[in-house]
Amino acid sequence: MTSGSDIAARIENQAERLHVSIGAVCNNNCIFCMEEDREGRYVNNSAMTAERVRWMLESHTGAEEVCFTSGEPTTRPELPDFVTWARSLGYRRISVMTNGRRLSHLAYAAALAKAGMNRFYISIHGHTKKLHEGLTRTPDSFEQTVAGLDSIAKLKRFGVELHTSTVITDRNLPHMLDIYRFLRGHGVDQVVFNVMQANGRADTRRVRPSGTARRSSAASRTKRTRPANRPRQAGPATAWAERRAPLAKTSPAVATFAGTATERGP
Ligand code: SF4
Fold first, then answer.
1. 79-88 vs 50-59: helix axis angle to the nearest 10?
2. C-alpha 174 to ligand 1 mean position (Å)
3. Is the pTM of this model over 0.85?
């Protein structure tokens, strides 16, 4: 059994992991999205120019992993180029946190893998259309995300890893085992369930078993403040490096941002 000190030592010795926020928009509309301020995200992440991405990558060579994230990274046309840069700079693990919808186009998924992307974290929140789309509030997102899983599963023979992230809410909590079996059946290597963190929409809403959302009475009573080590969503383009366990894009649950460094590029 792993002790607390073992875990602490493992985290302490963990190599740096670089997150680069490149997605200024998202084609989903999740009820719990931590990026509720879509306009702020657009302003912030639009400032992450290709030049800044390059600067970030060059500044952190030696990191264990570079992960393209925030908003929906696959909406960024230069993503394959960024992956190529990362590979040429020697990053061994190159990943993306995505809702997976664009990966339903196998040719696009294969182009990313060919450029050097070798780990995909795909957000999926249910094993049925009703459950998933009730949370993403985006028609047909279930079919596309599942097709995205299947695309990456086909690429696993080239060394690509397939992980998923499921944000647990009142609605999908009773179906965790079904979700796990469903995802494993689609070739997922690592299924991660994340506890929702009170950020963005999750700070102002919560999901009831009936499937409707309402203002959280706790949220309305309590004035919340941004943790000092968490980057603001609006403002200059940011990226952050961290030493900690893998972070799911949509989720927030593990996002303690220990060791966060907010950086400004050129
Ligand atoms: S949680 Fe992720 S997939 Fe959902 S709206 Fe937010 S950024 Fe998009």
1. 20
2. 22
3. no
